[in-house]
Amino acid sequence: MDTEKCKVLLKVVELGSMAAAGEELGYTTSGVSRMMAALEEKAGFPLLYRLHGGVEATPECERLLQAFRELDYWSDRWEQTASEIRGVQTGDVTVGTSYPAYYPWLARIIAAFRQAYPGVTVRLLQGNSAALYRAMAEHKADFCVVSQREGDFNWIPLAEDPLVAWIPAGHPLAGEPRFPLKALASEPYIDTYPGEDSDNRRCLADQGIRPVSQFTSTDTGATYAMVEAGLGISLENAMNSGNRRGKVAILPLEPPWTVSIGIIYPKADTLTPAAGRFAAFAQREKWRKDDERRFDPSV
Fold first, then answer.
1. From residue 187, how far is each of 132, 249, 255 by CA, in Å?
2. Segments in 122-266 forming alpha helices (H)
3. pLDDT tens across 249-267, in order?
4. CATH number assigned to the domain comprising residue 63
5. Which residues sit opposite 147 in a β-bridge?
6. Which residues contact 87 (CB under 8 A, 6 or more apart)?
7. 89: helix, coil or strand?
8. What is the pLDDT of residues 100-136, one digit of tens each?
9. Where in the sequence is the domain holding 27, given as residue range(s)?
10. Are the CB atoms for 251 and 177 separated by under 8 Å?
11. pTM of the predicted structure, to 2 decimals
12. Quick count: other Cβ atoms within 10 Å of Cβ 182?
C-alpha cells in the first residue's frame, strides 16, 4: 500500500475536494485524481462519490478510514525514526487544548520547543475535550490539554476546575450565593456543544437532571452572548469565565461539580519521536523555577 496515497485520500475526505487537497499537499488536481483512481483499483470498489460541488467518502471508504489513518501514522513514525537515526530531528506535532486559559503557557512551550527543535513543525488545535479525544484516537493530535475522559493515553493531572452557572443579570437567582442545579429542570437552558460528551452533559447526567434545552451553541462566546441577552442559563468551566465582563452573573453550583483537567498524549508504543520530544519538553517546562504560574488558570 502506497502510504502517500493514503495521506492524500485522508486530506481529500477532510476537505471534500480533490483540488483543495492537491493545493494543500502540493499536487495538481489531475495528480490527486490519478492517485484516488489507483487506490480504488487496488481496493476493488469506489472510495469516493464524485459530486457536483466536490467529493465525499463512500460507506466502504468510511469503514477503511481508520486503517488509512493508521497506515499514514505509522509511515510518518517510520520516517521520523529513520531521520532521528541519521541525526536529523524532524516531524510534526499537533497540540490541542479545550481551554483558552492554557494558550499563554502553550505558546511559551511551543516557542521554546521550536528554538530547541527547529526541524519540527508544531500546529495548534482547538476543540472541546470530546473532539480532542477523537483527534488523539485518529492520530490527528499528539498532545492535548483536556478534561478527563476514558481513553488509553498517558494522563498528567493539571487542575481541578469547578463548573459554574452563567445566569442573566436580571434573573431572580442571579443574586443567590449558589445556583441550584435542580432549577435547570424548569429554567430555559442553553446547551453548548449539543450531542457531545461535554463536561456540562456529564454533570447533568451525574445529577439526574434533564434540562429544558431551548437554545444550542457550538461556541462559548455565543453562549455567553445568549445568556447576556436573557435567553437562558448555561453551565461552563470556571476557568473559561473569569475574564468575561458582560451582564452575566457567574455562580458556583449546588451541589458543586468539579472537572479534572490534564494533559493526554500517546503511550510509548505509539508515540512518534517528535511527539515524545514535545511531551518530555512540556513536562520539564511545567516545573520551571521562574514560572510560578505553571498551569494555574486563575493567574
1. 31, 15, 17
2. 129-137, 199-206, 220-228
3. 999 999 999 999 999 998 8
4. 1.10.10.10
5. 261
6. none
7. coil
8. 888 888 888 888 888 888 888 898 998 899 999 999 9
9. 1-88
10. yes
11. 0.71
12. 13
